[in-house]
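Weekly puzzle thread! Below is a chain. First person to post its structure in token form gets bragging rights.
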Amino acid sequence: MALTIAILLAILYLDAPWDWIAIGLGATIEVTETAFLIRWSKRRRVLVGAETLVGRRALVAAACMPEGQVRVAGELWRAHCRAGAAVGDSVVVREIDGLTLVVEHV
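Winning reply:
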């Protein structure tokens, strides 16, 4: 928008060298705004997909000795716990291996 306004000002109202200064200023504003918005949009964590489960707490639903099931974010997932975990234990998701969550005790 700033570049469009600068071009219209340069064509209709401004004389040289002010027309080029206005266009340069408008282009600078546009580039800065675009860079800011791109950076702003990338500051958030992933909100969808299995990757969002890493780091979350889960509750063991079926004993993980070492394979079992955990409930995380309201869903049942197949889990692998190297140290083992009993039903009702709280665990943390450390990584995802296919459709299996690798978990460990809190």
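Puzzle host: Confirmed. Bonus trivia for everyone else. Residues 2-41 form one domain.
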